[in-house]
């Protein structure tokens, strides 16, 4: 009897589950199709409903229904017409860039950067402010973040734009729950950044999230960088700390608990010296050896790096020798990551961009010598074209990626 009861119960539960699955599947299919149509319009720039049906393989009625919803949600808009093959004008569709905005902010040891973008990824704002993150308490940093974000929100409100979300890039280990577990350069431990920021901004209606700066830099590079669209890529932050954002098979990989990419903690052997990649090749290592100041505050990092660049251009022998050694150490760390992940590109971001003429060749040479695959498995070391803006841009871009995946916004009052 127990067996029969169990079987009957299981059958009932299975039927209920199948019913839920069918409902969920229908919702998922429509969401996927909405994202599919949006991505197609984004790729084409402008196209008609008939073009979409031909390119997506969806029937005309389905395309018409999807387009109607995307227009209602202010994601697409009609933007002119062209004469079709049979003489009737075809209405063209494009991404609606006039209604939404997403915000990304990076907080680091010596600055904050804010970027706002529209649905097409066009920059609406790009602000950079000096901020002594290393010398500020977490509370003061949150107040500064909230103040900067509030100014951007007010500006977007004045332009009639709806905020899709606010994402924050942080140089530290951030769990999948958004809590900053450890950000040593900022002095943060187990800090609920998103909760405190929401409180400081009086609980806004849009989502407030946080992620590691390297992760978000990788997101920006994949969408806007010189290697945009690449399926396998490593992005290196090149700030005082050294972290990596990993794009694998076209997706950002955070790991089981969100802590993937800590390349700075890998051990390398360079010239008989064994230590962490960050200690041998991080920007802090550059300044420790070459700065003429005994005590560098967070606010002085960029100025100190610029001084090193000036001295390198003047071909000071010691500066060139140190930068060559830094480059070889960086190449040794990159070689470990390349052997493990086999990326197509390793992108040098942050301060590495300015130092790349001197550290890049040494890193490439060390990579070629140390990787097991011939030709470094096809991996190239390249320099970011996005510079220090990449993590903040990636923070804003991640929100657009969610929409491209089918998580459609609803306009206020809609």
UniProtKB/TrEMBL annotation:
Pfam families: HTH_IclR, ROK. This is ROK family protein. It comes from Glycomyces rhizosphaerae. Belongs to the ROK (NagC/XylR) family. SUPFAM superfamilies: Actin-like ATPase domain, Winged helix' DNA-binding domain. Residues 37-78 form the HTH iclR-type domain.
